[in-house]
Amino acid sequence: MSQTATLLQGDEDTFDLRAKLRKSQRAYKLKSLALIAPLFLFVLVCFAFPIGTMLSRSVDNPEVNTAMPATTAALSTWQGNALPDERTYVALIKDLADAKENGQILALSKRLSYEIPDYRTVITKTLRKLPDDSAASKRDALIEVDRAWGDVTYWKALKQASSKLTPYYLLASLDHRFDPAAGSIVKADPNQSIYVDIFARTFYIGAIVTVLCLLLGFPVAYWLAILPEGKSNLLMICVLLPFWTSLIVRTAAWIVLLQSDGLINRTLMFLGVVDAPIQLVFNRTGVIIAMTHVLLPFMILPLYSVMKSIPSNYVRAAISLGAHPFVAFWRVYVPQTVAGLAAGGLLTFILAIGYYVTPALVGGAADQMVSYFVAFYTNKTVNWGMASALGSLLLIATLLLYVVYGKLTQPTQAR
Question: Which InterPro entries does the entry mention (predicted)?
Fold first, then answer.
């Protein structure tokens, strides 16, 4: 009996110990969650929520659905083969009258004009001569006001625009649109097809800036890596110094330096390189120069972090075995910096394609990038759909590049 009691007592002690361990682990998890909760809320409120809102705005389509609920409901069962029935025309008259009273006509006509440019005129003309209750046939009365109401294409466009979600803005960002008459996606008109060229210009400028940063940053990073620690730390302060200066101040300084009567043009003329001032600002040359200066530290720092970890005796061993110093550097040292090259290049390119301030201040009209048009649609025309669509496409490109960046830097982290 005593042995059995001892075994039972041991089981109870083991159970109590396990319970205490679970309680301790639960308390530890709760403390950990409490510590990361502020950071999680910060990321959620400041990053996840704005990005999610932007992505939703690129497909959100509330204008027609909100201003014309009865017409939207009537068109939901319309097949589009012939003109809608009398009930739909009655709903249209009622919705237009209510929208005018509620101050929704401007947003409504603006949204419908995206589908068919002269839809705004049709809405305005119809409101001036809106049929009253005395009209026997609302269909005939509306067609008499404007022949557009007798055209199936306008009704198809109205039904297309009445959907709660729309691909219009994303298609427009890719220079395409949905043709209500054909019922398919077609290329936009040549005078409206600008966004593919803008994206190409953005990636082109980003690539040029990245290459220049690589050509300038690689020697600097190598020099910092081979210098003694004291001198290297002192020079690293010079690399980090631009981070402590306002971006607008640095950009304005380049405007002063690059202008026709600026220091660079005066120096070139004094040395006899040019006879007259050359245009270096408010064009693509100025944009590339200023952006290269701003983004150069983002190339140097990843390269320096990789080069600092490369043992110098590798190159010396190759030279001692008979290799030329340049061959030893190119075939032994440079391959070990590939992770830094890829990380710095992709990081610089990602930052370059999203730049706004520097191209807006230093560049001309033909040098503006996607970010400029996002700001234009946000601040000037208040077209949140187009701004969100352009921003979403730029975000997708950035995320894809970030995935590549993560994969290329993973071996360095593992090492």
Answer: MetI-like, MetI-like_sf
